[in-house]
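User: What would this chain look like folded?
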Amino acid sequence: MKKIITLSLLLISGFVNAQAYKGKGDIKGQVGLTLQDGGTGIGISTDFGIGENMSFGIVAGYMLNADKIADVKPRFEDRADLKVRFNANIGNVFKLDDNIDIYPGLHLGLRNFGGHLGARYFFTDGFGVYTEASVPLARYDTDVNGFEHYNNQFMFVIGASFNL
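Assistant: Here's the prediction, encoded as C-alpha coordinates.
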Protein backbone atom coordinates (compact mmCIF):
# COMPACT_ATOMS: atom_id res chain seq x y z
CA MET A 1 0.00 0.00 0.00
CA LYS A 2 2.86 2.40 0.81
CA LYS A 3 4.36 1.78 -2.64
CA ILE A 4 1.08 2.63 -4.36
CA ILE A 5 0.71 5.87 -2.37
CA THR A 6 4.32 6.86 -3.03
CA LEU A 7 3.99 6.16 -6.75
CA SER A 8 0.73 8.13 -6.88
CA LEU A 9 2.32 11.13 -5.17
CA LEU A 10 5.27 11.03 -7.59
CA LEU A 11 2.95 10.98 -10.58
CA ILE A 12 0.84 13.81 -9.21
CA SER A 13 3.91 15.93 -8.50
CA GLY A 14 5.01 15.34 -12.10
CA PHE A 15 1.73 16.83 -13.30
CA VAL A 16 2.03 19.82 -10.99
CA ASN A 17 5.56 20.73 -12.11
CA ALA A 18 4.87 20.59 -15.85
CA GLN A 19 5.40 23.92 -17.60
CA ALA A 20 4.23 24.70 -21.11
CA TYR A 21 6.53 27.72 -21.58
CA LYS A 22 9.42 28.67 -19.32
CA GLY A 23 10.69 31.80 -21.05
CA LYS A 24 14.17 32.61 -22.30
CA GLY A 25 16.17 29.47 -23.08
CA ASP A 26 13.12 27.21 -23.37
CA ILE A 27 13.16 24.86 -26.37
CA LYS A 28 10.09 22.99 -27.60
CA GLY A 29 9.84 20.34 -30.31
CA GLN A 30 6.53 19.35 -31.84
CA VAL A 31 5.31 16.77 -34.33
CA GLY A 32 1.75 16.58 -35.53
CA LEU A 33 -0.86 15.66 -38.09
CA THR A 34 -1.76 18.44 -40.53
CA LEU A 35 -5.31 18.64 -41.87
CA GLN A 36 -6.19 20.80 -44.84
CA ASP A 37 -8.18 20.85 -48.05
CA GLY A 38 -6.66 18.39 -50.52
CA GLY A 39 -4.86 16.09 -48.12
CA THR A 40 -3.25 15.39 -44.78
CA GLY A 41 0.37 15.41 -43.78
CA ILE A 42 2.96 15.77 -41.09
CA GLY A 43 4.23 18.94 -39.46
CA ILE A 44 7.42 19.34 -37.42
CA SER A 45 8.30 22.49 -35.50
CA THR A 46 10.83 23.80 -33.02
CA ASP A 47 10.44 26.91 -30.88
CA PHE A 48 13.23 28.72 -29.02
CA GLY A 49 12.39 31.01 -26.08
CA ILE A 50 14.02 34.43 -26.41
CA GLY A 51 12.15 36.25 -23.64
CA GLU A 52 9.52 35.91 -20.96
CA ASN A 53 6.72 35.93 -23.55
CA MET A 54 8.51 35.60 -26.90
CA SER A 55 9.85 32.75 -28.98
CA PHE A 56 10.91 32.12 -32.54
CA GLY A 57 10.92 28.89 -34.45
CA ILE A 58 11.08 26.83 -37.61
CA VAL A 59 8.22 24.81 -39.13
CA ALA A 60 8.46 22.14 -41.82
CA GLY A 61 5.45 20.45 -43.35
CA TYR A 62 4.90 17.71 -45.89
CA MET A 63 1.61 16.46 -47.31
CA LEU A 64 1.63 12.66 -47.25
CA ASN A 65 -1.59 11.96 -49.13
CA ALA A 66 -2.12 14.92 -51.43
CA ASP A 67 -4.99 14.65 -53.90
CA LYS A 68 -4.28 14.48 -57.63
CA ILE A 69 -5.34 17.48 -59.69
CA ALA A 70 -6.43 16.85 -63.30
CA ASP A 71 -5.12 13.29 -62.85
CA VAL A 72 -1.57 14.60 -62.10
CA LYS A 73 0.24 13.63 -58.90
CA PRO A 74 1.86 16.47 -56.93
CA ARG A 75 5.67 16.60 -56.87
CA PHE A 76 7.83 16.93 -53.74
CA GLU A 77 8.01 20.73 -54.05
CA ASP A 78 4.21 20.89 -54.30
CA ARG A 79 3.83 18.98 -51.03
CA ALA A 80 6.62 20.53 -48.90
CA ASP A 81 6.74 23.86 -47.07
CA LEU A 82 9.22 25.56 -44.73
CA LYS A 83 8.55 28.55 -42.47
CA VAL A 84 10.20 30.68 -39.81
CA ARG A 85 7.93 32.09 -37.13
CA PHE A 86 7.59 34.40 -34.16
CA ASN A 87 5.28 33.58 -31.22
CA ALA A 88 3.87 35.61 -28.36
CA ASN A 89 3.59 33.08 -25.51
CA ILE A 90 0.76 34.53 -23.45
CA GLY A 91 -0.43 31.73 -21.16
CA ASN A 92 0.90 33.59 -18.12
CA VAL A 93 -0.67 36.87 -19.27
CA PHE A 94 -4.09 35.23 -18.97
CA LYS A 95 -2.99 33.70 -15.65
CA LEU A 96 -3.45 30.14 -16.94
CA ASP A 97 -1.89 27.15 -15.18
CA ASP A 98 1.84 26.72 -15.80
CA ASN A 99 1.18 23.61 -17.89
CA ILE A 100 -0.93 25.57 -20.44
CA ASP A 101 0.36 28.04 -23.03
CA ILE A 102 -1.43 29.98 -25.75
CA TYR A 103 0.70 31.43 -28.53
CA PRO A 104 -0.50 33.63 -31.37
CA GLY A 105 2.13 34.52 -33.93
CA LEU A 106 3.27 35.33 -37.44
CA HIS A 107 5.18 33.17 -39.89
CA LEU A 108 7.09 33.74 -43.12
CA GLY A 109 7.26 30.73 -45.42
CA LEU A 110 8.33 29.67 -48.87
CA ARG A 111 4.79 30.28 -50.14
CA ASN A 112 3.23 33.03 -48.01
CA PHE A 113 3.23 35.31 -45.01
CA GLY A 114 0.67 34.22 -42.43
CA GLY A 115 -0.61 34.06 -38.91
CA HIS A 116 -1.18 31.22 -36.50
CA LEU A 117 -2.78 30.53 -33.14
CA GLY A 118 -1.72 27.58 -31.04
CA ALA A 119 -2.08 26.05 -27.60
CA ARG A 120 0.04 23.57 -25.64
CA TYR A 121 -0.85 21.46 -22.63
CA PHE A 122 1.93 19.59 -20.82
CA PHE A 123 1.12 16.47 -18.79
CA THR A 124 4.69 16.16 -17.48
CA ASP A 125 7.78 18.34 -17.69
CA GLY A 126 8.79 16.68 -20.95
CA PHE A 127 5.60 15.68 -22.77
CA GLY A 128 2.40 17.38 -23.83
CA VAL A 129 -0.07 17.89 -26.64
CA TYR A 130 -0.62 20.86 -28.90
CA THR A 131 -3.00 22.18 -31.50
CA GLU A 132 -2.47 24.96 -33.97
CA ALA A 133 -4.39 26.72 -36.74
CA SER A 134 -2.73 28.83 -39.40
CA VAL A 135 -3.93 30.97 -42.26
CA PRO A 136 -2.13 32.89 -45.03
CA LEU A 137 -2.37 36.67 -44.73
CA ALA A 138 -0.47 37.52 -47.93
CA ARG A 139 0.35 35.09 -50.73
CA TYR A 140 3.42 35.55 -52.94
CA ASP A 141 1.36 34.56 -55.98
CA THR A 142 -2.00 36.33 -56.15
CA ASP A 143 -3.38 33.80 -58.65
CA VAL A 144 -3.20 30.62 -56.56
CA ASN A 145 -4.43 27.57 -58.45
CA GLY A 146 -3.66 23.88 -58.79
CA PHE A 147 -1.02 22.58 -56.41
CA GLU A 148 -0.17 26.12 -55.25
CA HIS A 149 -3.37 25.94 -53.20
CA TYR A 150 -1.94 23.17 -50.98
CA ASN A 151 0.31 25.43 -48.91
CA ASN A 152 -1.76 28.61 -49.28
CA GLN A 153 -4.86 27.86 -47.23
CA PHE A 154 -6.21 27.37 -43.73
CA MET A 155 -4.44 24.49 -41.98
CA PHE A 156 -5.10 22.73 -38.67
CA VAL A 157 -2.46 20.73 -36.78
CA ILE A 158 -2.76 18.44 -33.75
CA GLY A 159 0.07 16.48 -32.18
CA ALA A 160 2.65 15.94 -29.45
CA SER A 161 4.93 18.55 -27.88
CA PHE A 162 8.23 17.92 -26.12
CA ASN A 163 10.63 19.92 -23.95
CA LEU A 164 14.09 19.62 -25.49
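The first strand starts at residue 27 and ends at 36. If you want, I can go into more detail on any region.
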